[in-house]
Every structure is written in C-alpha cells, then in structure tokens.
Amino acid sequence: MGVVHGQEMVLNIGPQHPSTHGVLRLQVKTDGEIISEIKPFIGYLHRCFEKHCENVTYEQVIPFTDRCDYLASMANNFGYVVAMEELMEIKVPERVEYIRVIMAELQRIASHLLALGTFGLDVGAFTPFLYMFRDRERILDMFEMTCGARLLYNYMWVGGLSHDLPIGFVESAFRFLDYFEPKIEEYNNILTYNKIFIERTADVGVMPADVAISYGVSGPNLRGSGVKWDIRKDEPYSIYDRFDFDVPVGIGEKGNLGDCWDRFNVRLTEMGESIKILRQALTQIPKNGDVHQTIPKKIRPPKGSIYKRTETPRGDLGFYIISDGSPIPNRLKMRSPAFTALSVLDEIGRGWMLSDVIAILGSLDIVLGEIDR
Amino acid sequence: MDLLGFIIILVKVLVVFAATMLTVLVMIYLERRVSAFMQGRLGPNRVGPQGLLQPIADGIKFMMKEDIVPAGADKPIFILAPAILLIPALMTFAVIPFGSDITLFGRQIPLQVADVNVGILYVLALTSIGVYGIVLAGWSSNSKYSLLGGLRSSAQLISYELAMGLAVVSIILLSGSLKLNDIVADQQGYLFSWNVFKQPLAFIIFLVAVYAETNRLPFDLSEAEQELVGGYHTEYSSIKFAMFFMAEYANMITAAALTVTLFFGGWDFPLVDESSLGILGTVLSVCSFILKMGFFLFLFIWVRWTFPRFRYDQLMKLGWKVMLPLALFNIFITAGYLTVRALV
Q1: pTM: predicted TM-score of the whole model, two decimal places
Q2: Which of A58, A219, B114, B313 sits a CA distance of 20 to 30 A from A84?
C-alpha cells in the first residue's frame, strides 16, 4: 500500500511566534500535522556586525561580540580576546586567566539554564522555566557585582580585564555553587525524568553522529549525538588543561542516540561539570595580580591572520581575524555554532509532527543574535 | 407548577449561575496566584487587597479591547463559536446536586436545579457540544493555526470521550440509575462507600479524561501556545476571547463538581446523616461539597503548572490503547461482580 498524501499546506512559523527563540521565520510544508519540509529564513536580527568590525578599532570590537550571542556574552568576549592575544603573542597574568575561566563557566551555566528552561517551555512545561530563571538570576547578580552589567558585559579585554574581581566575589561564588548543586536534582525530578517529557523528547529528532559532523554541528548538540568533542579538552585554550572535568556525551539512555532527550541531558550534565571546574578555579585562583598589567596601550597586531576557536555554551565559536598592521581589523569573521545547528533542522526535523519540530528547534538551542550577527 | 415552585426554581437557577460565575472569577485569580507561589513569584497583588480584584480589572480590560474579526472569517460562526463553548459549560451544572434537601416554607427543596432522570447522559451530551465551539472557532477564523487547533480538539474528543463514558458506565452499574441524585444517595454512609474506593480504576480513567475534556495541561493541545500560538482562539480578541477564557474555567468547575458527585460522594460528609440534622445538615453538606470541589479545582491548577504537554498522537494512543481497554476491563469486572452478587 502506498502512503496517502493529503493536500500540503504552507505554514509560516514566525518571525513573531512564541517559540522561535528570537526572530526566526520557519516556512514549513505540512500535511495535516506532519511536516514535510522546513525552510528557515534568517536575517531578521541582522545588524552587520562583521562589517562594523572592519571600521572600528580592535578594542571596539568587543561590545559587538557581546551582542552576538547575547545569552553567552562572556564566552564570546573570551573567544575574541583569546584569538587576539594569540595573534599579538600576549601572555596574560595567571589571575586574569582564572577569572576568565570562572566567568566563562558561570556563563555556561547561565546559558544552559536558559536553554533547558526554554526547551521545557517548548514542550509545555512552564514551571521549570521559571525555576531555572530564578537560579540564572543569581549568576547575573554576580556578573553585575563584577562589571556592572547583567547581559552585555564588555568585561574581557585584549590583554586583561576591565575590572578585577570585587571583594567577596569568591565567597559569593562558592555560596552560589553550594546552593545550585542540589538544584540539578530538582530539575531532574521536575523535568528530565518526567514520563511525559521523556515521551515528548526521546526518539524525537534523532541526529546521528555522521549527520551532525557533516553539517558541522558542534557543542552540546554534537555531544548529544555521542561524539566526544569539546575544544576545552581537545584543543585546550587559556588554562583549561589544568582542570579535571569530564565531557558528557549522549548515550541514548531513553531512546536512540542523538535524540532531543540526549541533547537536553548533555546540557544538564554539563552544568555539573562546570561546577567542578568552578570549584577548582575558585580554589586555585592567585590572590594577587594586576588585571590591567598586560593590556597594550595601543592594539596594533602584526600583519597576518588567525583562526581561533573556543567552546562557548553553544559550541565551537571561531574567530577569523585578518590584520593588515593597522589598529582596525581588515576582516573579521565569526563562525557561529548556532548557525550550523539551525542548518541541520530540516534534515532532522522532516517527517515529524509540528509539536516535534518545535521541540527539536528548542533542543538545538539557537540564538538568533549569533546566527544573524 | 405553582408560583412558589416556579420562584424557587428561578432562585436556584440564579444562585447556581452566580455561584459558577463567581467561582470562575475566583479561579482566574487563584490560578495566577497559586502558580506564582509554585514558581517563586508573587503574582498579581496590586489591584485590591492581595490582588483580589484582579479578575474584575481583567474583565474590564477585555471589554475595552477592540473587537477584531479577521478578514475572510466566517462572521456568523466566528461570533457564535464562543457562545457554543460557554453556554453548555454553564448549563452542565444544572443537574449536579450540591447539597442535601432543605425544608423551607413547609416544602422539601432539593439543592439541585433540575433532577433529570438521565442526568449523566445530559452531562455527557452537553460537554460534547462544547467541542463544537472549539472546532467552529478554529475553522471560522480563517487562520492556519486556529484550524490546526480546532482539528486537534476534535481528534482529542473522540479519543477520550469513549473512555470517559465507559468509566461512568461502571458507576451507573453500581448505582443502578442515571440520576445523579441516586448516585450520590448510593454513596452515603461511611467513608468507604464512596465510589472512589469501589471503583479506583474508573476514577483514574475519569480524572485523566476530564483533564482532556477541559483542555487543560497536559492535554491542552488545541491551544498549545508554543506550537499553535493560541490554537483555536488565536484570532479572537476582546470579550469573545474572554468568553473562551471563562468557558475553560466553567468547564473546570463542572468537571470538578462531576468528579466529586460521581466518585467522592457528592455532598456527602462521611459518617454523618445530613437529613436528620435539618438546616445544619444542609450547610454541612454544601460546605463538604465546596471543599471537595475546591480540592479538585486546586488539582487542576497544580497539574497544569507541573507537567509538560502530550503530543496529540500520544493522547490518542493513550485514549484508544490504554484507557479504553482499561475501562472495558473495569466494566467487565464490575458487571461480573454484580452478577455474582445477585446470584449468591
């Protein structure tokens, strides 16, 4: 017997839709509820960042990186300054390295909390979302305490930081970790191992490892497919080689390897690993050190180019910078992990139901600010 | 019917209608406050003491909003649909006994608007009509999201209604009557004479089906905000949207009242013979009814803010492959028990 096809209907999801995580438009072809084709349309949040960067000095690029992935600004700052420091061969003081790792890992937790919460929201669970926002709030408070900003920090500078840690930061960070660690269990109880949640996410939107790799998917999405790939471990930058932590990967616990549940669980487990890194970093951090010591008076990198990638909460964020020796970048290109994650949506979302596509989109954890730039 | 009898019925209708509408307002307030407390928020607390006047402020806001009818909508049906949903939701309460008989002006007055001899069938029929409101609203809006919402709710209807009806059949078998009064009378006595203890399986099936019927999470597929924006009421605004909103809560109240009536002894307060206590017994029975109903209304809120949503094929799977066979099995056991009891 052949498959009976009904009349196909074109449905526009977005750009104003509750669960497109920003201003994304998906044009889907549906046969009833079954989706036969997904076409993402991007560009609603395009702000010409890369072109802007060609007209401002290297210092002035940092706020643009903030505004790319606005849910993980610290990680974006980090990626850019690491690339610039390698280009200019600057060695920053120990204390700066530690503070950067602390901030990046706190940011990872904050970003994952938002990703998990909105994913829960996408499958209809409202309360976990607010629980996670409640805890994310405490991280944002700590960022505010450090640099005055809660979302867009402009905190990491080439060769240093804008401010040193405030008095009492380490203690409050430890207090947060003590508070937060048991909360992961709470999330597990309310969402991860909820029967309905498993029904909705297990075996849905399966992304096999070869598909993930061929599309260039990275970060937790790739690890959800069972590929143990984490830049912090495999191409250590900054001081990540000093810390003892695991790279959680999906094992197909509730269904096929690489389903939405695996991607969800990888993020959740990763928060625990970030806590491990944070505890080590907060213990080892040198008491003294000037965070402005190695900031160059004038940033004039030598002629040449660099491509450096770092592990943001969303995956490999690459910065390709071409310098012509002037204080203004000749070309700056960002390789966005969210962009590649979005490109795989059609491949893994086709044939699923409308509700599943929303769940798959949520599980990929895209940020439109970074996709459109 | 004499004049006094007519006045008594009129008063009962008004009281029941006013009480239902008031409970709707209270529920709208409680839903927001309770969910806020569950989520570590405050909820509305500005309008009036503890935000108690918030539903009234909401109501005024709804009336002031511009009433938009989308271009291409089927206007008569578009306007009719909210009424089709709301009116049956309010009518259902008419057959539910909410207290023991009261003696006033020398005559015995049952605390029930109409003692219909096919009470349960009346309830099932009216709740099915409500779904037409949703389907028609989805269809007449001329919007794809609304259409999908409407289609989902019709798929939902056929999946849960059978199991729900069959769960009720086992109760009917036990009490031997379709009258809700008889079902309540059948459960009087001590605590374990309540149907929930005699028919636990039927209770669970009925409770799940009731959540599907009222379009509440985890079965709010027809309005799934994250998928269908607003589902069937995406295109509705102003007081027409408010009517959908009220209908949802009115449905919840009816569903809670029905659950109490069928499974928790209705207005029965265990171990007390209400009819021998006179007016005090009536007050006690009404309070007991309200308390039990309040618990189920709270359960509605509690469940909504705890669970994620099912996918609609999963709901149909649950309805057809799990709940329906279980309900049939339950009827089989009940009927077998009754037959054996009759023989022995």
Answers
A1: 0.86
A2: A219
